[in-house]
Amino acid sequence: MGSAFFVSSAIAAMRSAIRQFDVFNGDADGICALHQLRLEHPVQATLITGRKREIALLERVQAYAGDRVTVLDISLDRNRVALDDLLRKGVIVDYFDHHQAGRLPVHPGLHALIDTTPDVCTGLLVDRFLCGRQRPWAVVAAFGDNLGDQARALGDAAGIDTARLAVLQELGECLNYNAYGDSDEDLIIHPRLLYEYVSRYRDPWKFFSCEPVFARLRAARRHDLASAHQNQECIELPAGEIVLLPDSAASRRARGALANQLATTFPDKAHAVLTPDRQDGYTVSVRAPKNRLHGADTLCALFGGSGRPAAAGIDHLPRIRVTAFTEAFAAAFQNRQGGISVAVKAVPRSLPARNTVQPFKPS
Ligand SMILES: [Mn+2]
Fold it and tell me: Cα–Cα distance between 60 and 309 in angstroms, integer?
């Protein structure tokens, strides 16, 4: 009796303070979106994040009536059940995102700023919300989400010169890079810790040049990408290229970044980068051609994957479905004007290694 009373009054005391939860994608966009918000509105919060593809995050929130949850850069559709639960309990939810959301719940506790057009990211939505008051970090977010044109336009408008813009670009790419990996063991640093380091810096250029954790991350990325370029094998198609990387933590980290680099370097082509998984198959990152930003999500959905029209992925593509994937990739991204349709009969068992020294020289 007495101990039950103690427990319930302790819980009541804990609940008497309104708590804040910050739930965010662990990539550059998620981290920089939150950082912009918290520079403007500092608050003690419980941080909930994970790897890039760890997006069912809202179910981890233990919140009660009156608590507040800020959600950044994770699909509402993939968190719908947990969101409905929180709203029903009387939790206030602020939701910023650019992924496919589906139907928006209508509830007075939900404040949603969701825009799924292909040329925005969550960092840019928060920039809009804050009227550009932490703009350099929005530029970092946009570079991280592979929106170079938008990032440069925003940076130019803010009077950031070319050299300083190049730093923001590398910063965005490195922060983004850190979120890739198929398990926490693949990661260089957990995104929650990385956010904590970022959150100590108001100035992104200072973070870039002074933070040792960032220096470590930057060196690891260079090493991983160099190794991915040296060891890749590929299938070349009129619509684009399918790249296979060897089985290593470096490959698993490099998969998405390599896909982004290829997309930027060959804007007319689509790209898929595959790494072996532990279940006799592959994990896949797909990028639509930069010049026609659509089709990646529908292609991946055919194989149980998801994402956005410009960038999407498949967690597990069984080895026996690689040929089907190759055909679907060719069909999804074939040039409509050219009308060339390619039926791929079989994937060669041993793919020819690409013989390049300069990784991005157009062929
Ligand atoms: Mn994003």
Answer: 28
